Amino acid sequence: MDYVKYEMGNYNLYFIKTKKFKTITISLNFRKEITPKDEVYSTLLKNVLMYATNRYHNLDDLCRASMEVYDPSVKIGYTRSGLDQSLYLDSTFASEKYTEKGMNAKTLKFIFDYIWNPYANNGEFNQKVFDICQHEYVNDMRSIKDNPDRYTRERVWEEMEVFPFEEFNALECAEFAEKMTAKDLYNYYLTLFTDNSLDIFVTGDFDEEEMKAIIGKLVKGNFKESHQSRFIVQKARKEREIKEKADTSQSKLAIGLRFTDLTEFEHKYVSLAYNNILGGGWNSKLNKVVREKNSLCYYVYANRRMPFGISFIFSGIDAGDYEKALKLIKEEIARMSTDVTEDELKEVKDLYNNALTDIEDKQISISENVISQVLAGTDTVQKRRENMEKVTVDDVKQIAKKVHIDTIYLLEGGKASGKENL
After folding, report:
1. Residue 232 placed within a domain
2. What is the average pLDDT across 171-182?
3. Euclidean distance between CA atoms 317 and 340, whole angstroms
4. Is 223 part of any domain?
5. Of the residues 218, 251, 274, which one is the last residue of a structural domain?
6. Do 146 and 11 belong to one domain?
7. Structure pTM?
8. Pair 62, 204 in one domain
């Protein structure tokens, strides 16, 4: 999908025009280099911003006010991509072409108030709202261990030491948030408009000059120059094994993999084919061998995180099957450099092409695709089709030699039964 870029002083505005939908989608992306404290600040901040504005002081008031502008969806989120983080606002709202004249401006004012007019006075967030969000965040961090799957994901990430700096673990996040004040968080909020870049994407059927004028009046700040995400380049290191006991019936196994010395083509395309053939679905090598053939796990799959140069294998097993399951998983990882078939690769390509075809059927997907092109450097849909088609079996075998097991983590529970029902 084509787009037009406007440089609006110190931020960028992108218009993706389409008449396929009766709605307009807008996405605001505040981006900066990540630091260890940012995830705590930003996660807590997004919750406070979503809770209230200076015009509407609670969720009930916000809900009633949203009905006056045809109930737009609004989501404020936080994500990390390589060395960068993004605090974003996504919203989809009814186009005034199907409501009444002037509704685009009224709706955007309502939406932008979440960011530019939060519930704050005298240099700090409303204390009641802050206390509620702080309490929820701290409890969430302290309860991670109560969820074995989530705890396993957090622990293997922690042990992988993905970033070139030391991160906070869940307990440290909770302790840091507990010491934070409403004023501290407000001071961090102000850095959105000084330490971040801002890129705004608008998708739908609208008058471009009118939309530029509306947004131009709403956006305030002294933003940094925008840039593409900076991915993390990994280096192989000696394999590590960590085990923890847990009061659970099922054991959780996680294996962290590092990709090293990849070309751009391998990073974008071959790694995807590798990951999906190894553990991307019901027909993956891991699922067929470990689960179906040998009944050694309840589930097994691979999760590719290429902005960080890594991938994870997650599996639920009985404690007594750990050694057997690990041995088979390692064997399948090793076999990726010698045993990949044309049929396996074709299935991956077919699924990939189907996903690309689906992009233009959803407005949010069109928007996300352009955002990914601009901020992450992904290719256009057509180029992605062409490049994925170029991936060969030999490419997959070669990248397998650049994949290294880094961390094996086991959250060891008691014995469970039930694999006979799989």
Report:
1. no
2. 97
3. 26
4. no
5. 218
6. yes
7. 0.93
8. yes
Give the residue from 31, 37, 74, 43 showing the smallest Cα distance to 56: 74
How much of the chain, in percent, has pLDDT values that exceed 70? 98
Residue 122 CB burial class (10 angstroms; 0-12, 13-18, ≥19): exposed
CA distance 245 to 327: 21
Assigned token pair, 187: 């001071």
Closest Cα partner for 81 from 305, 261, 378, 276?
A: 305
Give the HSE-up count for residue 141: Cα atoms under 13 Å, Cβ half-sphere.
20
Same domain? 163 vs 275: no
**Backbone dihedral angles phi then psi of residue 312, each to the nearest 5 degrees:** -125, 145
For the segment 62-70, the average pLDDT, to the nearest whole number, is 94
CB-CB neighbours of 311 under 10 Å: 21
Chain mean pLDDT for the chain: 95
DSSP state of 293: I
Query: How many domains is the chain partitioned into structurally?
Result: 2
Claim to verify: residue 92 and residue 154 sit in the same structural domain: yes
pLDDT at 420 over 70: no
CATH number for the domain spanning 321: value is 3.30.830.10
- Element holding 311 (H helix, E strand): strand 310-317
Q: What is the mean pLDDT of residues 363-392?
A: 95
Q: Is residue 384 part of a domain?
A: yes
Q: So what's the pLDDT on residue 238?
A: 96
Can you give the residue range of the structural domain that contains 58?
A: 4-218
Tell me which residue of 201, 223, 152 sits closest to 374, measured CA to CA.
Answer: 201
269 contacts 349 by C-beta, under 8 angstroms: no
Of residues 190, 45, 43, 191, the one with CA closest to residue 123 = 190
Residues 271 and 214 in one domain: no
pLDDT digits (tens, 9 = 90+) for 95-131: 999 999 999 999 999 999 999 999 999 999 999 999 9
Beta partners for 4? 15
Both 294 and 385 in one domain: the answer is yes
The domain boundary, picked from 156, 186, 218, lies at 218
